[in-house]
Amino acid sequence: MRVLITAGGTSEKIDNVRSITNHSTGRLGCLIAEKFLNRQVTVDYVTTAQAKHPVENKYLHSYEIASTQELTQQLQQLLQKNQYSAVIHSMAVSDFTPAQTFSQENFLEEINHLFKEKNRPLDKEDLAQLTTTTTSDEKKISSDTEQLYLVLEKTPKVIQLIKQIQPETLLVGFKLLVDVSKQSLIATARESMKNNQADYILANDLAKITEEQHIGYFIDRKGQILGEKHTKEDLAILIAETILSQNASSYRR
Fold first, then answer.
1. Buried (b) or exposed (e) across 185-207, using 16+ Cβ within 10 A?
2. Which ranges carry the DNA/pantothenate metabolism flavoprotein C-terminal domain (predicted)?
């Protein structure tokens, strides 16, 4: 049996010394990996340098990435090379990545030039032209500028690649919202599972995650809640045991 696990959070470069990232520690993904490793399951573990890593193990193969683009490339390589019983995608992937940066002076200069050229109110197509045709060679943005204008563009949904490449693998997705009702959280998680062709999804709320507590709801493809757990340890056990049981059942058939 071989599983692929992603954990931690991606980081998107603004320049060579600055980046946009998130607060994901990778602790839950690490615990899930350890549950499989304890059962002598081969684990391909894709993570970041800052995230929690499992203890070295002969069944463990670790791969470090930083950005969403690097994650996409790494997953494509692994999914095309290996056959996985399950893919557990717990990594917090950036929804946006920097497309362009402007100092206050450069932003005004570019906007004024574009406005003069068009001789009319600017629309979203004009702004798209501004962000795609203007390039910056700065390796480090000067700290002298009073204001910095940062244009972000949407990143592709990495999770959707998984079933495209390996439609038969069991896919576990994760949905994190902030301070919402349980009903809203579950409904959003079910919709995410449908959109991404996931077989299971863990729904959790950042407002209910602390150092000692992690409330999560594990949901199957029928939309049923298989379990509600209150710690990372218990969530990791539930996820790993569900996948192991499903794999054993499939093997017997």
1. bbebbbebbeebebbbbbbbbee
2. 2-104, 135-244
Domain with 142 in it:
97-154
Choosing from 135, 154, 173, the residue where a domain stops is 154
Q: Is there a single domain that holds both residue 168 and residue 81?
A: yes
Rounded to two decimals, the pTM is 0.87
Give pLDDT tens digits along the chain (253 positions). Answer: 999 999 999 999 888 888 888 889 999 999 999 999 999 999 999 999 999 999 999 999 999 999 999 999 999 999 999 999 999 999 999 999 988 888 777 888 878 888 788 888 878 887 777 766 655 555 566 677 778 888 888 898 999 999 999 999 999 999 999 999 999 999 999 999 999 999 999 999 999 999 899 999 999 999 999 999 999 999 999 999 999 998 877 655 5
